[in-house]
Amino acid sequence: MNRWIGSTGDGVYSVDEWTRYGDELRRPLMVANGLGKAKTVLVVGAGLSGLCVAYRLAKKRPDVQIELLEKSDRCGGTIETWNKGEWLCDVAVNATRAHPSFWRLVDDLGLGDQFEPSNPAASTRWIHTGGRNRKLSPWLVLQQGPFKVLRGVRSSRQGKKSVAETMPIPTISDAMTLGIVNDVSMNVDADFLMPSMTRFGDEPPIKWSKVKRKMVQTYPMFTPNKGATASLKGGMQTLVDSLVSTLKSLANVRCSFGVNITTPEALAEERNAPLSSIVWCAPLRRTASEFTHLNVYAVGFTEADSRSVPVGYGTLIPDAHAPISGVLHESDVHASPRAPAGHRLFRLMSPAARGATDDEVKQSLHTYLCDAEPVIFEKIGERRIPSYPPGYMASLEVLKPEFTRAGWCYSGVSITHLAAEAERIADAF
Ligand SMILES: Cc1cc2nc3c(=O)[nH]c(=O)nc-3n(C[C@H](O)[C@H](O)[C@H](O)COP(=O)(O)OP(=O)(O)OC[C@H]3O[C@@H](n4cnc5c(N)ncnc54)[C@H](O)[C@@H]3O)c2cc1C
């Protein structure tokens, strides 16, 4: 089913485009027709999306002025890395899953020597249900009823289904969506979260397995192992800092902070600029209730005290009565150190909707980690995440947008989507 218009204009993306972007081509690309004619492009929002879009456009067209307009007093948006002595923890995104677009971004910025694959010994994920941890594996899914899953996946191809309908195993689907978007699976759009599974958008002109084989040959720097993630020394702030310093060095880029823009229409009027010169990389016309909120904690133990905690990726906790929804084993996962020698760092996620106090979160360590007293326990931030209710992807206006839209409200939840979307916008520029 052709829902998006391919760059060839005939509604079909070429094999080369599939090789470059893979399943990102199932996602909408909302580029205004007149963007390529703009002499000045106004990029609103300096989160990772706005920074990547500004970077790709400015590099491609040194003759065009790029103005980055940010509401707050800093770049990075959701991304921030917390430090205390030798402790280092990302408040939000800490690693990237494999995608050549992200690898290209890191390579183009010259960050290859700071970008490393995750520790293969720390890939195990657990789900905490019924008072114990179970290893998350295809076997666990099969045990819960393979036919239910098969029926769910088939029905999801009609579109606009929730993740709960697509994967009708509540503990697993809730654990997964809580881990990704901080919401239970009945509230989350399956098309937006996993368009390849629901077969949203176009199909490649050749078999998907062939596309994947071709994609694997395009990774610069190193080819990631299946299922592996990768991260940056110094945390994700490294990426933001590098983008910011590169943008500062480009003569055609300007960045303003503390700007108060409410809508693209208001900005176009204020600047007497065409709407089509705006790239909106921020939430738009979303009310406070269209986000979920999350409290994030960093917790450290000595290795000796946390010996009973197996090395792994982390544990998801779908129980709505638990103070936390997940524990990530930060110092197990990353190749670069996140804790002083002889210590381990964990990150806890506590959905605000669960209403837990800091003390209740701390008490929950006895259940989900170990009984020892942590050497460090600190709330390191609060974050909000856009909600993506069932039918969200299908509701996005993709035909003839008056201004360009990007960022995690449109591209997909993770940073690989943002990196690919910025390249695709530059391709169309
Ligand atoms: C706890 C958590 C963990 C995560 N973990 C991962 C992970 O492991 N892997 C992964 O791939 N992704 C992860 N993500 C998702 C990732 O962080 C996001 O995809 C990404 O940061 C979104 O970037 P963005 O630029 O689209 O939006 P934002 O970061 O929200 O940036 C938007 C920017 O726009 C600005 N702004 C807003 N309104 C206006 C306005 N009117 N005018 C001007 N500026 C405005 C904001 O101040 C902000 O700077 C995680 C997210 C969270 C919260």
Q: Assembly state here?
A: single chain
| Percent range for β-strand residues | 15-25%
Work out the helix count. 17
What's the helical proportion of residues?
Answer: 25-40%
List segments where confidence is low: pLDDT < 50 over at least 5 consecutive residues.
1-9
Shape: globular
Largest sheet, if any?
A: 7 strands, mixed
- What is the structural class? alpha/beta
List cofactors, ions and other ligands: flavin-adenine dinucleotide
Q: What is the average per-residue confidence, as pLDDT, rounded to a whole number?
A: 94
**In angstroms, what is the radius of gyration?**
22 Å
Going across the major beta sheet, what is the strand order?
A: 8-7-13-14-15-12-16
The number of distinct β-strands equals 17
Give the CA-CA distance, first to last residue. Answer: 26 Å
Written description of the protein model:
The protein is α/β, with parallel strands linked by helices and 429 residues long. Helix content is 31%, strand content 19%. It contains 17 helices and 17 strands. The chain has helices spanning 15-21, 48-60, 100-108, 138-144, 146-156, 163-166, 170-181, 190-193, 195-198, 208-216, 237-249, 264-271, 330-333, 358-363, 365-368, 392-395, 415-427, and strands at residues 40-44, 65-69, 81-84, 87-90, 96-97, 115-117, 125-129, 132-135, 229-232, 253-256, 278-280, 291-302, 314-316, 326-328, 343-351, 376-386, 404-405. The strands form four sheets. Strands 8-7-13-14-15-12-16 form a seven-stranded mixed β-sheet. Residues 1-9 have low confidence and may be disordered. Flavin-adenine dinucleotide binds next to α2, β12, β16 and α17.
